[in-house]
Structure formats: C-alpha cells, structure tokens
Write a structure and sequence with these properties.
Length: about 160
C-alpha cells in the first residue's frame, strides 16, 4: 500500500487511525459510491470540499458524503459574505489532490478547515487519505485537532 502524506503525518504524530483500501471506479468517485460499493455506513463517510469566499480566500469544508454543502452556512462559518465551490480544474494546483482523493490533511497549503457538526455523532469517520482508493478511519476529535478544524453547521 502506498503511503500518503496524510498517513505519514498521523504515523509521525503517533495517532490512532486505520486505513481502508478499495477498488476505484473512475466513473464515479463520489463518497456515496465509495460507501455503497464497499458496504460502508454513508453517514460516516465524509467528503472534502474546497471553496472560495467572496474575499477570494480559500477554505475547506468536510461534510457527510450524502449531503450537499450549504454555501450560506459555509460562508458564515468562514467569515465570508458568500462562498462557491472551486472548479475541479483548480483542485490539484490549490491542494495537491485530485477529485475523489482530496484529504483534509496535508494540502499544499494549510487552509482554514471546517467540519460538519454531525461528525461528533460518531466515534470514527472515514475521510480520504489523499488518494483515490484509500480512506482514513479516524476519530473526529483527532481529525479536528490535526487539521486545525472548526466544527460548524455546514449542511
């Protein structure tokens, strides 16, 4: 198994996590597809979205895989008037990750990160480990700490 920067970081910090490897279907890399095809609880599979605020600043939202980010709530959490999702073409240059493999950890730059409050309902959640086909199973508390994330109502 290839180690990603997110995995290396968690190992270096000696924090508990598990890895879940799965077969990638390039035709659908959504969190919902990952959960359904691998028998995972969709409520615990979170996706990482990158947004741009009206000021031009970039920030990250981590939300349940079945949900859509509420742009007004996301903007409010980030202290912005408005927010929009960045284009897929910008994702790699801003984060170092591709769609379907974007981890909230170890992006090219540390962006303000917000995680939906529903993460607190679970002892562990799944997030991308930084590549398609690899998920981290991690406690929300550890993810919040390592990502310097703020808990917010985002959906």
């Amino acid at each position: 198994m290839e180690k990603t920067n997110a995995v290396r970081l968690l190992e270096r910090l000696n924090l508990p996590f598990s890895l879940f490897e799965y077969q990638v279907d390039d035709s659908d890399v959504s969190a919902k597809a990952v959960a359904q095809k691998n028998g995972l609880d969709l409520d615990r599979v979170f996706k990482t979205l990158v947004l741009r605020g009206s000021s031009g600043s970039i920030f990250v939202c981590v939300i349940p895989g079945e949900c859509t980010v509420d742009l007004k709530k996301a903007a409010r959490a980030a202290g912005e008037k408005k927010a929009e999702l960045i284009g897929v073409k910008e994702l790699l240059s801003l984060t170092g990750y591709i769609r379907g493999g974007c981890s909230p950890l170890c992006m090219k730059k540390e962006y303000p990160t917000y995680i939906d409050e529903t993460c607190q309902l679970y002892d562990r959640i799944y997030v991308s480990a930084g590549m398609r086909g690899l998920q981290l199973l991690i406690s929300p508390e550890i993810l919040i700490e390592v990502a310097h994330a703020h808990v917010a109502d985002l959906v």
